[in-house]
Amino acid sequence: MSGITVKTFFSEKKEELKLELLSGENGLSNKIAISDINRPGVTFAGYLEHFSNERVQIIGLGEYSYLKSLSEKKQTEVLEKIYAFRNIPCFILARGLKPLPVMLKMHKKYKIPLFSTPLKTSFLMAELIYYLEKKMAETTTVHGVLVSVYGLGVLIVGDAGIGKSECALELVKRNHMFVADDVVEISKHSGGNLIGKREKLIQHHMEIRGMGIIDVSKLFGIGFILDESKIELIIRLEEWKNNRNYERAGLEEHYTMILGVKVPEIVFPVRTGRNLAILVEIASLNQRLKKKGYYSAKELNKQLIKLMSK
């Protein structure tokens, strides 16, 4: 089963979420396999048919108040039925709520970690969903350079030595943002958003053939780098081929599939005299117009057809 352990979650978010482990430490090896979370309100009330036991369970004021209103015997009966389900990762008490004595016993018995946090329930849920979505995201790697041009995430790809890094370096000199060079780690998030970044160890570094490794953040300043960016356009660089018909009008849309998401792609043939950085800038601005519903080539085509019809 894929996912992360409760121990990993606890170690990574302990400080930020102000988590305290109260009971069930023998269950820290439990797996969190999905990013969704659950509030077991109706489950405490006895409705177990659709209990999402595989999710992290959040106990807010409503759930806690109901459970506290029951006798200790009834509390035990309710929790016995719930904790008998397999694959429950952990429970978290929000708002600094104090654990009921029966809860401490049951979590130890069933080896289900019980945490507490002073954070409000809604804030805790939002933070957990964001964190777990990033951890559970489907990922892949692509050889290329990722930059943010006019706020648009642009992935530049092509054969080794074609000039990807040099193009990105020129874009940084033109006040755009550098994200990653060589190997871009891509993850798929909710809404079909693709997020690209670079491994932390070599983050903000770029390889320039003939010169070696350079630190972009040190050369240009922290204001010219991003830790991650959406991928909204792919620029593919390739050697100019005389026998290939390259796009001239721009009426056809081309895409590349990454993790099941269609990303617009433009092929730029490379030869002496072409300023690739400027072309990438124009392509980025044009893509932003397309996202707003304006297609320059299609608009011109409509006007030409209208003119010819007269």
Describe this structure in words.
- The chain is of the alpha/beta class and 310 residues long.
- It folds into two domains: 4-135, Udp-n-acetylmuramoylalanyl-d-glutamate--2,6- Diaminopimelate Ligase, Chain: A, domain 1, CATH 3.40.1390; 138-301, Rossmann fold (3-Layer(aba) Sandwich).
- Helix content is 35%, strand content 29%.
SSE diagram, text form:
Elements: E1 4-5, H1 6-17, E2 20-23, E3 31-32, E4 37-38, H2 41-44, E5 56-59, H3 61-69, H4 72-83, E6 91-93, H5 101-110, E7 114-116, H6 121-136, E8 138-149, E9 152-158, H7 164-173, E10 177-189, E11 193-197, E12 205-208, E13 212-215, H8 216-220, E14 228-230, E15 233-239, E16 255-258, E17 261-270, H9 276-291, H10 296-309
Parallel strand pairs: 4-5, 5-6, 6-7, 9-15, 15-17
Antiparallel strand pairs: 1-3, 2-7, 8-9, 8-10, 10-11, 11-14, 12-13, 16-17
Helix pairs in contact: 4-5, 7-9
Q: What's the count of strands?
A: 17
- Work out the helicity level: 25-40%
Output the helix-strand order: EHEEEHEHHEHEHEEHEEEEHEEEEHH
Number of helices: 10
The CATH topology of the largest domain is Rossmann fold
CATH class of the largest domain: Alpha Beta
CATH level-four homologous superfamily name of the largest domain:
P-loop containing nucleotide triphosphate hydrolases
